[in-house]
Design brief:
Oligomer: homodimer
Largest interface: A-B, 27 and 27 residues
Shape of chain A: globular
Order of helices and strands of chain A: EHEEEHHHHEEEHEHEHHEEEHHEHEH
Helix content of chain A: 25-40%
Strand order of the largest sheet of chain A: 5-2-1-9-10-13-14
Strand content of chain A: 15-25%
Structural class of chain A: alpha/beta
Distance between the termini of chain A: 12 Å
Mean pLDDT of chain A: 95
Chain lengths: ~300, ~300
């Protein structure tokens, strides 16, 4: 069994490649829920949905998020009613959120709902939220009138990550328990993969759930991280706006430094081959390979590289 | 001030005509909520929405329910997820339900939410739910395996009113209180109108809320009902399937009989002029006029007839 720590779209693409070369039923993905939000009363789990949609082959690859062939009629009608429209809720996506919201209201856990949604969308991999408890990623930014505290999505989507981030915190994480299956999967893993996701707001919240870092460190299997940064810039998303808040260089070696105590190998891009030495100096095995996933075949090749590095 | 007792589409059309000849701000419509339902976790109030959409000029007049220019992408995606799709939820309609559901979850009453939705849709008339308390219209039908108890919508929409109805009941109505403003409006009314709505499942639930019948009867203003039945058949809907459950003839005079203790005048169609005598025999003033509303001008003319009859 393989266990992956996963954020949203980047993780989804990588895992879609992985299940081309590895049985999906034997893959457990532990997914960030720090970005989850309530909007229009709907329970939205952006990273869980991104991974689910991508593994189901239904993600919109051009837009980079949400479902292919999406429409926006509900959102437009909500805006017409005077409701906020900044969060991109597509009509088909809303069906997912309606299902999740109803099931949670009925008393189901996020883990249960996630398994149900995967089953209904034909996703064979096991997706686990990092926790069934509420954890909320919040950022403190330099606002016009001094420091301003925002939910991650308010800043990321609502303000398009305009203001520099001073601090990131994971509200509620101290009291959060790993979702059922998370620690067991890590203990039984034949390999642990850290997906090419945002280290600060996708991977760090998972690691912040009490017990997770210890479980990863205690696992005796091979552990590999794949860089989300190529040539000093994130492949997608805005990690470049978040790494500086932690005084981490926006580079492959910068991210490798964050994972130095966690994994034993780090995959970095051909374009960053000159950083291999720095990665090695951190005590990690450096694996230089193409990491940009234009196609699912690219993703499968990257997954193969990562598996070999285990 | 005029007060109307209203069901859904038929009432909406009539009231849309009424506000052409009477100031909307001085109209209070008390609307049936017995058909309200939860579906996919959404709080749906079909009659309130029909009247609101019609008064806002946004109803789909061809289909006869819902919003004009509607699409069905959320519903299709829900069906793809394995959820039931029998209740016609359009994408724009869902925006209304999302708003209502969120506000109710925040603790707002249905009255408050209704006023907010009217305001946001530019409806100047005052729509009041008959009650902020839950009342559920249920029907007992002759099923294949004996009597079957169904919610009104399950039978009406889900089974397309196939099975004959043996009994109609308004669950919870005994403990329901009239919504704020209902009794005051009836007491202060300069005229009370019973809209051309289904007598059994639209008007009767309103009258079943404790205190409403008494308030209508105590009002000293003129009171007029408009027939929903023309030439022995409902103008729209399926009143013909429900009146027999109460052993009422499917005719203008049959409906007039139901309202004999409530109003002092009854508007029946030209096509039913031969029933005027029977209506008079019930102690009601019979007003014979065109009642079919093809256009808003027809509706305004019918409203004028009803106002004159006050």
């Amino acid at each position: 069994m393989l266990v992956a720590l996963a954020g949203g779209v980047g993780a989804g693409r990588f895992l879609r490649g992985l299940v081309r070369i590895y049985p999906a039923e034997q893959l457990v993905a532990i997914v960030n829920t720090g970005d989850d939000l309530r909007m229009h009363g709907l329970a939205i789990s952006p990273d869980l949905d991104s991974v689910t949609y991508t593994l189901a082959g239904r993600a919109d690859s051009e837009r980079g998020w949400g479902l292919a062939g999406e429409t926006w009629n509900v959102r437009d009608a909500l805006v017409r009613l005077g409701e906020p429209g900044w969060f991109g809720l597509g009509d088909r996506d809303i069906a997912t959120h309606l299902y999740r919201t109803r099931r949670l209201a009925e008393g189901a856990t996020l883990s249960q709902v996630t398994a149900e949604l995967c089953g209904r969308m034909g996703v064979a991999a096991h997706l686990l939220p990092m926790s069934d408890d509420r954890v909320e990623t919040r950022v403190e930014v330099d606002g016009r009138d001094g420091p301003t505290d925002l939910s991650f999505q308010e800043w990321w989507v609502g303000r398009q990550a305009r203001e520099p981030v001073r601090e990131v915190r994971f509200e509620g994480v101290g009291g959060a328990r790993p979702a059922p299956g998370v620690l067991d999967a890590l203990a039984a893993a034949d390999g642990i993969l850290v997906c090419p996701s945002n280290p600060v707001v996708s991977i760090a919240p998972i690691l912040a759930v009490p017990g997770v870092v210890e479980a990863v460190q205690a696992a005796t299997c091979g552990k590999v991280a794949v860089t989300p940064i190529v040539a000093g810039a994130p492949v997608r998303g805005m990690a470049d706006k978040l790494l500086p808040a932690w005084e981490v260089e926006v580079s492959a070696r910068g991210v490798a430094g964050l994972y130095a105590d966690l994994v034993d190998a780090f995959v970095l891009d051909l374009l960053d081959a000159d950083q291999a030495e720095d990665v090695t100096a951190l005590g990690l095995r450096a694996v230089v390979a193409p990491t940009i996933m234009h196609t699912v075949e690219d993703a499968a090749a990257l997954a193969k590289t990562a598996l070999s590095a285990l």
